[in-house]
Amino acid sequence: MGIFERYLSVWVGLAILAGVFLGNLSPDTFAIVAGLEYAHVNLVIAVLIWVMIYPMMIQIDFSAIKDVGKSPKGLVLTLVINWLVKPFTMAALGWLFFRVFFVDLVDPQTASEYIAGMILLGVAPCTAMVFVWSQLTKGDPNYTLVQVSVNDLIMVVAFAPITALLLGVSDIQVPWATLLSSVVLYVVLPLIAGVLTRHLLQKNSDETRLNAFVAKLKPWSMLGLLATVVLLFGFQAETIIAQPQNIALIAIPLLIQTYGIFFIAFFIAKRMKLTHKIAAPACMIATSNFFELAVAVAISLFGLHSGAALATVVGVLVEVPVMLSLVAIANRSRHLFADEPTAAS
Questions:
Q1: Phi, psi (5° rounding) for residue 42?
Q2: How far apart are CA 5 and CA 30, in angstroms?
Q3: 243 CB neighbour count, 10 Å cutoff
Q4: pTM passes above 0.85
Q5: pLDDT range class, residue 88, cuts 50, 70, 90
Q6: Pick from 276, 255, 279: which is nearest to 265 by CA?
Q7: Mind giving me the DSSP string for 197-265?
Q8: Residues 6+ apart with CB under 8 A from 124
């Protein structure tokens, strides 16, 4: 394990501090970068995510994907948690905290918007960063691709009705451009690039050049993650300083939701006797959120300065450090899972 992986939590912590400091030092610079977007997808963030996941896409072997169907339990676990559990637990926690525990701390209208933002996070399973968490837990890249792809397909048809149900309205306007652009940018195009690269480097079943190339790219993948963290916290630096109490109130149920969903998925994966390279990414996919989509919908429905938009932004702020802690937990629990030799077992 290299220095980046060994001290990744330290580097992320420093990146968070750097983002908040730089964002307050030069807010206009970050505002310009934040404005470089298409369909609410920030193009700079998209490039950095490419830097992160391109090396992972190179490792995907399409000849092995066909074997994923031989062991569908990991896929079933992810789908059940993402679509039948997580949206509803998020809505319940939002109601419990902002209608009961924090009822005297937040006015009713703002509380309703916070709950709405949390629901939007709960209904949007992650697309891009999952590949990062999968790599950090040494997950099966082929299986991870299938899980992400199936979730994306379901999201296209299920996001709007589930969101409408939980928000209690029927006129949800899903920003399809954001949804489809994100899937293309974060999954389709890097996957194509990875497949072509793998084809060019892998000749006569000799993976020497392929492995050497991936090893050279690995530090760049970690740097892409750190740069993404700096930008995300830089974008919201002024909000972090101006509204620390409200951010803390929103973060509490989000943290309970994130850790709770992870351990539910973790327990079920253990009972299902999944191998670690399937179980760990499955838990990560079930836990993380598609924050680009959640933020875009919150802004389109409630406005840029609404409580719903702030709640989704807090989801962005807690996502990386919390997921890194879950990566550490998953890696330290490797000995608890079965270890079978087949790639998709």
A1: -70, 125
A2: 28
A3: 15
A4: no
A5: very high
A6: 279
A7: HHHHH-BTTB-HHHHHHHHHHHHHHHHHHHHHHHHHHHHTHHHHHH-HHHHHHHHHHHHHHHHHHHHHH
A8: 155, 159, 289, 290, 291, 293, 294, 297
**pLDDT classification of 127: cutoffs 50, 70, 90:** confident
Tokens of residue 309, six digits: 């938009």
- pLDDT tens digits, residue range 159-208? 878 888 888 754 556 667 766 776 777 767 887 888 888 888 877 666 78
Long-range contacts of 1-10 (CB under 8 A, 24+ apart): 2/218, 2/219, 4/218, 4/219, 4/222, 4/223, 5/136, 5/222, 8/136, 8/222, 8/324, 9/321, 9/324, 9/325, 9/328
Nearest alpha-carbon partner for 288 in 250, 316, 246, 248: 316
Residue 48 has pLDDT above 80, yes or no: yes
Q: Is the dihedral of CA 197, 200, 205, 207 positive or negative?
A: negative
In the structure encoding, which two tokens stand for residue 85, read together?
Answer: 């559990």
pLDDT band at 345 (very low <50, low <70, confident <90, very high): very low
Task: Count the neighbouring beta carbons within 10 Å of the beta carbon of residue 43.
Answer: 13
309 CB-contact burial (10 Å; exposed 0-12 / middle 13-18 / buried 19+): buried
- Reduce the DSSP state of residue 62 to 3 states and report it: helix
